[in-house]
Amino acid sequence: KKKKKNLKKKQNKTNMLQAYGRVVSNQGSPGVDKMPVESLHEHVKHNWISIRNQIETDTYIPQATRKVEYT
After folding, report:
1. What residues contact 23, with CB distance under 8 A and at least 6 apart?
2. What is the pTM of this model?
3. CA 44 to CA 13: how far, in whole Å?
4. Scanning 3, 14, 40, 44, which has the fewest C-beta atoms within 10 Å of its C-beta?
């Protein structure tokens, strides 16, 4: 059981780092929270423990995303 929890932690960290990297490389636009990509690193750094705990306990509820239309 402990092994499974450690694996879940590693997957969360790996997934978060990959997602962060994609957002930064795509120069993503601010979401509904109006947070610019440049502020994301500091936000995650200061809130990571809380975010991680919410992910691990299945209580994390992401904010809505903005709809983007491509033409």
Report:
1. 37, 40
2. 0.59
3. 12
4. 3
